[in-house]
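Reopening this ticket.

The earlier resolution said the output was attached, but the attachment link was broken on my side. Pasting everything inline this time so it's all in one place.
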Amino acid sequence: MYKLLIIDDQKGILQMLRRRFTKLDYEVFTTDDKDEALQILESEIIDLVLLDYMMPEVSGFDFFLYFNEKYDLPVIMMTAYSSINLVIEFMRNGGTDFVEKPIDVEVLHLRIERAIKQHLNVKRQINARQKAQSNLKETNLALLEKTEKLEEKNEQLDAFTATVSHDLKAPIRSIIGFIDLLKRELDVEKAGKDVQKYFEFIEEGTTKMNELITQLLNFAKMKELDEEIEPIDAQELVTEIVNSININTPHNAQISIGLLPKVKGDATLIRQVFFNLIHNAVKYSRTKEKPTVNITADRGEDETIFAIKDNGVGFNMEYTVRLFNMFVRLHSDEFEGTGVGLANVKRIIERHNGRIWALGEENKGATFYFTLPD
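Inline output:
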């Protein structure tokens, strides 16, 4: 049931409107006094005010300006002396509608219904907007709190990795130092081939352990991409990596580079991806009589697909799901490695919102694919 407040200086109109709108299932309050009207507005939840322009002591327009600042209500003005200027001024100051006397109650009823529904609809929209803003504020506060916690954890991780790096590498440095002292003390060159071989095993083991620790720390410290995204000339980057491998890695593989596009990403991390995959291709094809490595790229709908293909030892496709896991090595007896490289590559590509997968066949080579989105 809607509540109407009708303010008019004519008793007959007040009684007629009260009677008619009460029958239309409204709760009706009537008065011809501005102070009593203010009391009703203060004590009741009024849905609409029906206000006469002519009032004793003060004009209905001035009274409207007074209470409209405090109460958010639809107001319909009634007058027998309407003018276009009055209508414009009333509506400009927030008035809802304007009706002329004598009043057609049926028309007035339609206008009241429309005004109340429009006002309630606006209030619902405002409440929904305020609720959405409140939810957004709460979400932002929660996000800020999570960000602060994440930054704290990252700081703890940095401190932890620094400690681990020192604590794990310190014994290795000690082993290497004592090996040098033992070599001088024993004069290894005169100690026999077996002793020399033992020292070689120890040195290889410490070097491998040092490399593994470094890779594990890099894996643990890898953070989210932020402002490091930049244009990357894949052609230039891959050519530089291949030249570096040709100089620093003994091999007889024929490496071919197709036409590679420009992409976007963290240049340092993408370099690590290409280097690892190309180096692996060279490594796992070295047992072939004519090892080959092909590096190509194709355009997808919204991504670039890179492929590094070799004709090396390949792998059984049954093990594909394990290929990118930490410490998984399918050819550990024949080829050197730590089992961390592909896990690192996968993590980098996923940080770039890309995908990575591999196809292979035993003794017939392998192809590693990865994508970078546009």
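Reporter confirms the inline version is readable. The chain has ten helices and twelve strands. The first strand starts at residue 3 and ends at 7.
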